[in-house]
Amino acid sequence: MHDKYEAVIGLEVHLQLKTKSKAYSSDPATYGETPNSQVSPITLGHPGTLPRMNKQVVDSAIRLGLALGCQIRRVNEFARKNYFYPDLPKGYQITQDKTPICNGGQLKLTLADGSEKTIELTRIHMEEDAGKSLHDLDPFNSLIDLNRAGTALLEIVTEPDFRTGEEAYAYLTEIRRLSRYLDISDGNMEEGSLRCDVNISIRPYGQEELGTKVEVKNLNSFRNVQKAIDFEFNRQIDSIAKGERIHQETRNYDASQNKTIALRSKEEAHDYRYFPEPDLQPLIVDEDKIQKARSAMPSLPWERLENYTSNLGLSRYDASVLTEDKDMSDFFESIIENYSDAKAVANILNTQVRSYLNEKSVALNEYPVSATDLAELLKLIKEGKVSHSIGMQRILPEMEKGSKLSPLQIAEANHWIQESNSDSLIPFIDQALSMYPDKVEEYKSGKKGLLGLFMGEVMKLSKGTADPKLCSQLIREKLEN
Amino acid sequence: MAYSDYPSYRKELESGSLTVVAEVERILEKIDQSAHLNAYLEVFASDARARASVIDQKIAHKTAGRLAGMVIAIKDNLCFKDHKVSASSKILEGFQSLFTGTAIERLLAEDVVIIGRTNCDEFAMGSSNLNSAFGPVLNPLDNSRVPGGSSGGSAAALAAGLCHASLGSDTGGSIRQPASFTGLWGLKPTYGRISRHGLIAYASSFDQIGPFALNAYDSALLLEIMAGKDEYDSTCSEQAVPSYSKHIEEPVSKKKIAVFKSVLNHQGLDPAVQANFHQQIEQLKQKGHTVEEVDFDYLDYLVPVYYLLTTAEASSNLARFDGVHYGFRASEAEEPEAVYKKSRTQGFGKEVKRRILLGTFVLSSGYYDAYYGNAQRARRLVTNEMNTLLEKFDFILTPTTPHEAFRLDRKDTDPTVMYLEDIFTVLANICGLPAVSVPTGYGSSKLPLGTQLMGKAFSELELLQTAKQLG
Asked: Is A47 touching B (CB cutoff 8 A)?
C-alpha cells in the first residue's frame, strides 16, 4: 500500500522579523522582556488608536522576495483578518489578503543524497503577530502577555511541491539560513521566530488530482515537521486501507507521542471575514525602492557556494560547510582578504576553529581570534617561520586564550621560530646521532625507517623549532655520505 | 453676556473686562441649571477651573494661544488622557484613555478649556441620540424633541450656551444633522483633513471629526487648528492647511452650484424644508451665483451603500470590546467564549448589536461579494459621478435633513425608516467630501432648519466662505 501512494505537501512558514519596532506601531519588538512591558495603547488595541506602518517590514519583505526571485507588488493593500482570541487585542489581525507583496519565486534544495529539488513559492505577505496566552503560570487563570502582539511577520506559502518530510526539513533549513543571510530573522523554530504549518494529502502515484488535504499545526522543530509529515502520510494511507475517507480538517501534532490529533473540521473552521484595512493607505513600492534593496543585498548562500567552488577551488563539501552559516562564511571571506590560500583557510575553519566552538559550545561571534591574526598565523606557516604542528598545536591555542601578542610575537617569545639555518641545526643532529651509535650502523646497513627516530631526537633537542624538511635532508646527507 | 464669536470674546479677555475664570464659572453654573438636557455625561469642572486661571495669566503675559479661553465640549468618543471615554456605551464602563487624540491635543496647545464630554448615540450609531446607554439628550429649543445624532450632546450643549464650541464626529451626518436640528454651524471636513487618532472608530473610512460652532469664523478657526498631517493616522492628508480664518471674510467669486432634481422632488421632504430650500436657491441666485438642476440617479442607493459598508467596518472596529482587556466584563463568565458572549450581549445596546450583526453578515463567506463587494463598487461609482459633477460645479446644495427635529417619543418599528434621516448627509461621507450645514430658517414647529453645502475635496475655505451667503 505505502509504495503505491505519494504525499503532496505544502508549507506555510511564519518568519518573525528582527525589526526594532513592531509592524504597525513604534513599540519595541524585543524578545524575552517582562510580560506586557513592550506595549503602548496601539499594541493594547485601545479605542482611538490607529496602526502605523513600519517601513522596515516592507524592506525585509522586499529583500526576501528578491532573494527568492519573487515578483514584487507595486500597490500593496492591507486586510483585516477577523477572529476573537484573548491574545488578539483588536479582535482582528492586520495582514495582506488579495495583494501579497511577493508572488511566485522558488527555492532550490540539495537533499542528503546530493540530488536537487526546486520548490515553487505561491506568495509572501506581511502581517502582525498576536500576543501569547500563558496557561501554566497561574493555577486558576490564563494570563496574557501582549509583548509579541503586533510584532512583524512574513508568511511564506509554497506550492504543494514537497513529497517527503525530508524535503520539508531541507526547505526549512534553507529558509532559516537565507533569513539569517538577509539578516531579517533569527529563523529559530524553538524560540518561535520561525513557525511552520503543514498541508498534506496523499494520492496514488501517477494521479494528477489532489487528495483531501489535512492541515497540521503545533510544530516546534524542523525534526518534528519531518516526523509529523511521516506520521500523517502513514495515517492517511492506513485510513484509506481501512476504507475510510480522509476528512478536511486541522490536526495538532503531539511531539511526546509522535502523532497528530484532530483539532477542528472544515465545518468548524473560522470565517475570517477578510476585508480591506481602512486604517492604512495602500503601500506603494516604487522601482527606486526595489533598486535600492537590490543593491544592498548581501551575497546569498548559493552564490557564495558557487564562488567558493568555481573561483576559489574549494571542494563542494568544504564550500557547503562554510556557507551553512553566514557568520562562518563572512569570517572565511575576511580571512582570505589577507591570505589567499582558500584551501588552507577552509581547513583551519572546518577543523581547528570548529572544534574550539564545539568544545566550548559558543557561537562564532564569541571566537576570540580575529580574521587578521588567523591570516597572519597561516602566513607564518606558509613561509616556514613556524612548523604546521607548532602553528596549530601551540600558537593557535595561545591565541584562543586571548593572547594580546601577535602570532609572530607568540612564536618569538616561546622560541618557536623554525630553525631553517643548517649551521644551527648541525649541532643538534650531531648530538642526536652520537646518542645512538648502533642505530646509525643499522641505518647505514639499510634500515632507512630509523630516520624518524633521529628526527624525533632533533626535534626534542631543538624544542620543536627545527624545520622538519631541512632537518631530514641534513640527517640523510650526514648518514649517507 | 453671551458668547457670540471668538474674536469679540478674545477682545473682552484682552481688555480685562472678562476673565476666563469668570466665563468658565458662568458656563459651569449654566450647565448645572441645564442638567435636564442630559447633554453632558461628565463635566470636568475642577480641571476647567484650574486651566482657566492658568490661561488668564497667559493672557496677562501675552503668551496665550490662538484659542485662549475658548470653552469646548467634546463628544464622548474622543480620547482625552486620564479622562473617561465611553462612546455612551456600557461596554467601556470605567475606561480611561491613556492618551489624548491629535485634534484635542492641538486645541489644548492653543489654550482651549475642555469643559466636559457630551452624550451621543452609542458608538456614534444613530440620528436621534436615543441610542445612548445614558439616556436621551433633549433639544434645548424644544424639550420634547431630539437634538439629532449621533453628536446630539455636543449640539445641545452649544445650542443651550453650555460651551463656546464643541466637537463631534460625522460618519454619515452625525455633525450636520444635529447642527440642523439645533440651529448651528456643523462642519464635516474632507476625509483625511483632521487626524482620526483619538477618535473611537465607528466606520474608519467614513469617520471625520469636526466642529459645531455659532458662525463661519469659529468653524474656520477650529478647523485650521485641528487639521493637518499626523504621524499617528496614515489616512490623514499631508496637504497643507490654509489659514481658513484669515481668509473667511474675503468676498467670494460667482460660484456654480448644482441641486439634484431627485432631491427637489423627494417624497419624504417636508413642505417647510422644501420652501426653505427654494428660498436659499433664490437667495444664491440673487447674489449672482448660478444654481442649476442636475440629474443624480444614485440617491436611493446611498443609504443602503452607507449601511452595508459602515456596518461591515463597525463589526470589525468594535471587536476589540470583548470584555477581556478593559471596560465592562460580565460577571460569572469564565471561559473566553462566555466572556465574549455575555460581555458583548450585556455591554452593547440594541442598535449597536444590530449593526455588528449586519456588518458581520455582509462580510461573511458566501455573502461578501453580493453585499460588501457590490457596495464597494457602488461607492466607487458614486464617487466617480460626484467627482465628475464637481468638475463642472463648485458646490452641491441640499437640505441637511428631510424635516425639522422629530419628537423624542417617535416610534419606528422599522429601523430603516430612521436610517432614511441620513439620505442627504451620507453622500459626503461616501465620497469623502467636505460639507457644512448652515442654519437657514425655521420649520412648521418653529424649530431650526439647515441647508447643506458640499464641495470638492479640501475646498473647505471656499465652502465656508460661500456658506456664509446662506441663511
From this structure: yes
Closest Cβ opposite residue B231 in set A52, A86, A274: A52
For residues B350 and B447, membership in a common domain is answered with: no
Last residue of a domain, one of B314, B339, B362: B362
- Over chain A (481 residues), the average pLDDT of each successive run of 10 is 90 94 85 85 95 92 97 96 95 96 96 92 96 86 90 96 96 96 92 94 94 94 96 95 93 94 85 96 94 93 94 93 93 94 94 93 93 94 86 92 91 81 80 88 86 86 81 83 69
Q: Are B221 and B8 in contact (CB under 8 A)?
A: no
B367 and B356 in a common domain: no
Classify residue B54 as exposed, middle or buried by CB count within 10 Å of its CB (0-12, 13-18, 19+). Answer: middle
Q: Is the CB of B235 less than 8 angstroms away from the CB of A92?
A: no
User: Can B75 be counted among the known catalytic residues?
Assistant: yes
Cβ <8 Å between A48 and B365 = no
Q: How many CB pairs under 8 A join A and B?
A: 100
- Domains with residue ranges and CATH for chain A: 2-289 (no CATH), 297-413 (no CATH), 422-480 (1.10.10.410)
How far is B362 from chain A, CA to nearest CA, in Å?
9
Whether B89 is a known active-site residue: answer: no
Positions of E strands within B264-340: 290-294
Q: Say whether the peptide bond before residue A37 is cis (omega within 30 degrees of 0).
A: no
- Domain of B61 in residue numbering reads as 1-299+363-471
User: Per the structure, how many domains does chain B have?
Assistant: 2
| Chain B interface, best mutation among A98, A133, A268, A279, by max B CB count within 10 A | A279
pLDDT in tens, B254-271: 999 999 998 888 888 899
Which three cell numbers mark A346? 577552509
- Say if residue B293 is in the same domain as residue B333: no
Q: Is B411 a catalytic residue?
A: no
A103 by DSSP, 3-state: which?
Answer: strand
User: Would you tell me how many other CB atoms lie within 10 Å of the CB of residue B208?
Assistant: 25
Q: Which of A7, A48, A9, A49 is nearest to A26 (CA)?
A: A49
Strands (E), A213-258: 214-217, 249-254
Neighbouring C-beta atoms of residue A37, cutoff 10 Å: 12
Tell me the backbone φ, ψ of residue B115, rounded to 5 degrees.
Answer: -90, -25
Distance CA A306, CA A69 (A): 18
Question: Beta B256-260 vs B290-294: how paired, if at all?
Answer: parallel
Q: Which residues pair with A92 in a beta bridge?
A: A82
